[in-house]
Design a protein that fits this description.
Elements: H1 3-14, H2 28-36, E1 40-47, E2 52-57, H3 59-62, H4 89-95, E3 101-104, H5 115-124, E4 129-133, H6 136-139, H7 150-167, E5 172-175, H8 181-188, H9 192-201, H10 205-208, H11 216-243, E6 247-249, H12 253-256, H13 274-288, E7 295-300
Parallel strand pairs: 2-3, 2-4, 4-5, 5-6
Antiparallel strand pairs: 1-7
Length: 303
């Protein structure tokens, strides 16, 4: 464990998900009941069943470069993809007898600044389950000074989730942590092919510029970028806790995954390929699966 892996684990642990101790009065529909001014809630016999699911975020959720040359490939998305090689959330729900309509609203290149617009579109589509993975492009910019500050990132995520909660008060949100681009540098820096793609494409220069340099300045730069991503992940955990039981955070699972070059697209050595998308789906779905067996909580009318 490095210092910054430990930092990410500590900050996420300090924001332990509220859903670990959820009760009926604070379940998602109960929050809607409180907003509507009704007197209480009651469990129904029916488990929660999302009717519309939306993928939100950046190029990772869009499946970029997962099946073609520099194009989005929604069929390979870890969230809403329908290709069997990925075993997305959508397909894993299908294994359990669910068949939500799906829409992929993720935008390649998007940062936290673009999430609110995606959430508004999800509300328009009446999504009752959304997945969010965004933040790599907040850190992967041309220079460190252009990286999104953690407090601004956090406020953008909070605003976007507040929009969803207001528009779809019974909806649920799954938030995946931002991947560890520091690990990508470690596993790719000795590959001439990977270095060539990073240089020609100017891919994530804050982390991947001068990949073979062992200078103190370059080592410090990489650690600062990785720390910024750890800060984003801690912010995601805090926002999810504040949202309430209708939000799940992956607890840093995506950030902590020991992925290899076998999980990375050979078209840019940056985005996940189908195997990488499958890894994200596998590690994140287990964090929300029990929602599918949970009774729905409905508001009771006022006496």
């Amino acid at each position: 464990m490095t210092a910054f892996t430990g930092l990410a684990a500590l900050t996420i642990a300090q924001a332990a998900p509220a859903w670990a101790a959820r009760t009926a009065p604070t379940a998602p529909a109960a929050q809607a009941a409180q907003a509507a001014g009704v007197s209480g809630v009651a469990r129904t016999a029916e488990p929660w069943r999302p009717r519309v699911m939306a993928a939100l975020g950046d190029s990772i959720s869009a499946g970029f470069n997962a099946c073609g040359w520099y194009v989005p490939c929604a069929s390979r998305s870890w969230s809403t993809g329908d290709h069997p090689s990925v075993r997305s959330h959508r397909l894993r729900m299908g294994d359990l007898g669910l068949a939500p309509r799906t829409v992929n609203l993720a935008v390649p290149g998007s940062t936290s600044a673009g999430l609110a617009a995606q959430v508004a579109r999800a509300v328009e589509r009446r999504a009752d389950y959304v997945t969010i993975l965004v933040g790599a492009q907040d850190a992967c910019v041309s220079s460190e000074r252009l990286m999104t500050p953690v407090d601004l990132y956090e406020s953008r995520i909070a605003q976007a989730l507040a929009t969803f909660q207001a528009g779809r008060p019974g909806g649920r949100v799954f938030v995946a942590s931002v991947p560890d681009v520091g690990r990508l540098w470690r596993i790719g820096k000795d590959s001439p092919v990977a270095r060539g793609f990073w240089a020609v494409g100017r891919i994530c220069p804050t982390m991947l510029a001068r990949p073979t340099s062992a200078s103190e300045a370059d080592r410090a730069r990489r650690e600062r970028v990785r720390a910024r991503i750890a800060g984003y992940n801690a912010a995601l955990a805090r926002v999810c806790v504040a949202y309430g039981p209708g939000c799940r955070h992956d607890g840093g699972q995506v950030f902590a995954q020991p992925f290899t070059l076998g999980h990375v697209s050979k078209w840019d050595f940056f985005h996940p390929n189908a195997a990488g998308q499958r890894l994200i789906a596998e590690k994140t779905f287990r964090m929300m699966r029990d929602w599918l067996a949970e009774p729905v909580v409905e508001p009771l009318p006022a006496p």
